[in-house]
């Protein structure tokens, strides 16, 4: 609300000065320099907290060392953007959706439950758990049981998965979730406060303990996978998860391996660990949030819902059971338009940050080194200079073959060098889930008069707090 107020009052560029000086850019044209140069590839200043958190110059998201970021990002992209990985995404969407349906059938689909109107659920929480299991499976190749754990809390009948493994999954996800708070805490407090002021010292210790726990769990997973790869005969195929790809790249198990020494070295375990962590922490909650927003907008736009159901039914006919495949994904054009339109009107990532370490010209002005910029994605996505009737939820705008948003005016996945590497994975998943959900279920909001319940996470992300829906099998 504050940034919206400033945008309306001061226009396309303004400055805030809270703990840090920050230049806020609200026009697509201003992003040209901001996104295009390699010198503007840094996300934040290199503050001391990064070192204490053990991520300084490591991984992708918070890595400000350009050389090391390039190395890690290359491995990450290769693993996640390959066609084999895309197949994995679709296979595991089918598999985990099936598991979710098993739980829903037990809890919400029986006739007497529907008659008694007890078929209500918090859609956001379910998909948060679903997404946890999905991202861990895709990135590490191992199963976690976050959905099963949630089911166990709602049902007297338990999920059937080993209770120890279910509880372990929950501990891991809680630790990963805490990291975001930790990152923020370490970026706004000084080392003195963290070490010597008792209240803050306790918080800092708790965050560091959490990181220690996450690192230990990820190290165990990496060790297990290295052993499995070693035990797999050379003529047998290896799985296509991200962890396996990162371990074997630039080793003799990699099909494209050429021995070149240090120039093409493979990754160490600690590098792999931070990359996995970046993928898990970025990839788990954003899609669950977005899917919740999508459900909300569909429920409030009956014409969009009708058109979407026509598309889904034309592809699946009356078959509510068959698995979804890659061709279905490519044919679900209107569902993809719904994803884009939801991200345009309510982007989860409201702001994109960049930091310059050398004097630069941005938005027509000269800026000194160490200036922090925020691209106000929400303002750009809702500006009528770039969008016709920007406040209208209208997926049809994306259906015109000749339609191309103005440069940098649609940046749901950011842009430039640090463009989101998970964009393909996220889009496939969201489109497939819309189709799997609506071909079989009638999904209505419990309260059509309630505005969407969101909160601001760390000043940058908008996340769903709750989305109560009523589900029943579609007639
Ligand atoms: C709907 C889902 C998602 C949205 C809206 C989203 C959006 C974004 C945005 C806006 C950025 C910042 C880009 C920039 O600074 O220019 C970003 C970065 C990133 N995202 Fe995503 N993302 C999503 C899903 C995912 C998934 C599924 C993964 C991983 C598997 C992922 C991994 C990352 C990583 C590692 C970065 C840091 C990239 C870098 O600094 O080089 N994201 N994402």
Automatic annotation (TrEMBL):
User: What top-level branch of life does the organism fall under?
Assistant: Eukaryota
* Subcellular location as annotated: Membrane
Mind telling me which InterPro entries this protein's record contains? Cyt_P450 (IPR001128), Cyt_P450_CS (IPR017972), Cyt_P450_E_grp-I (IPR002401), Cyt_P450_sf (IPR036396), Cytochrome_P450_Monoox (IPR050196)
Q: Does the keyword rRNA processing apply?
A: no
Name the cofactor(s): heme
A GO molecular function term, named singly, is: iron ion binding
Q: Which PANTHER family match?
A: AROMATASE, CYTOCHROME P450 FAMILY 4
Q: In its UniProt entry, what is this protein called?
A: aromatase
Q: Which organism does this sequence originate in?
A: Rhizophagus irregularis (strain DAOM 197198w)
């Amino acid at each position: 609300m504050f940034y919206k107020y400033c945008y309306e009052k001061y226009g396309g560029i303004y400055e805030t000065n809270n703990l840090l000086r920050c230049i806020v850019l609200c026009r697509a044209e201003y992003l040209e320099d901001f996104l295009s140069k390699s010198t503007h590839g840094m996300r934040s200043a290199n503050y001391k907290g990064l070192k204490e958190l053990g991520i300084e110059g490591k991984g992708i998201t918070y890595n400000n060392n350009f050389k090391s970021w390039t190395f890690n990002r290359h491995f990450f992209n290769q693993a996640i953007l390959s066609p084999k990985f895309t197949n994995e995404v679709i296979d595991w969407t089918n598999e985990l959706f099936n598991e979710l349906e098993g739980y829903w059938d037990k809890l919400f689909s029986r006739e007497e439950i529907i008659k008694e109107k007890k078929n209500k659920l918090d859609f956001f929480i379910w998909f948060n758990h679903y997404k946890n299991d999905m991202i861990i499976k895709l990135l590490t190749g191992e199963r976690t049981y976050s959905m099963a754990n949630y089911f166990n809390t709602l049902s007297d009948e338990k999920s059937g998965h080993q209770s120890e493994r279910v509880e372990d999954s929950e501990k891991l996800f809680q630790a990963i979730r805490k990291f975001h708070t930790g990152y923020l805490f370490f970026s706004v407090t000084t080392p003195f406060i963290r070490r010597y002021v008792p209240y803050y010292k306790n918080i800092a210790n708790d965050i560091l303990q959490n990181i220690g726990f996450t690192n230990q769990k990820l190290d165990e997973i990496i060790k297990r996978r290295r052993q499995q790869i070693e035990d797999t005969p050379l003529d047998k195929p290896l799985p296509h998860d991200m962890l396996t790809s990162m371990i074997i790249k630039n080793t003799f198990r990699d099909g494209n391996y050429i021995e070149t020494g240090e120039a093409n070295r493979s990754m160490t375990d600690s590098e792999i660990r931070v990359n996995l962590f970046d993928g898990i922490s970025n990839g788990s909650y954003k899609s669950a949030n977005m899917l919740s927003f999508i459900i909300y907008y569909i429920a409030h736009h009956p014409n969009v819902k009708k058109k979407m159901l026509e598309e889904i039914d034309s592809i699946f006919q009356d078959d509510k059971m068959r698995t979804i495949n890659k061709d279905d994904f490519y044919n679900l054009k209107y569902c993809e338009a719904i994803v884009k339109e939801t991200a345009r009107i309510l982007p989860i990532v409201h702001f994109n940050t960049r930091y310059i370490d050398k004097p630069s010209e941005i938005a027509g002005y000269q800026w000194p080194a160490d200036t922090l910029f925020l691209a106000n994605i929400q303002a750009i996505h809702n500006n009528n200079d770039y969008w016709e009737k920007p406040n209208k939820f209208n997926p049809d705008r994306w259906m015109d073959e000749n339609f191309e948003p103005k440069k940098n005016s649609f940046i749901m996945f950011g842009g430039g060098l640090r463009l989101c590497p998970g964009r393909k994975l996220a889009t496939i998943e969201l489109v497939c889930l819309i189709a799997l959900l609506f071909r079989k279920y009638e999904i209505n909001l419990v309260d059509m008069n309630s505005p969407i319940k969101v909160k601001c996470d760390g000043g940058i992300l908008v996340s769903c707090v709750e989305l109560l829906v009523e589900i029943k099998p579609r007639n």
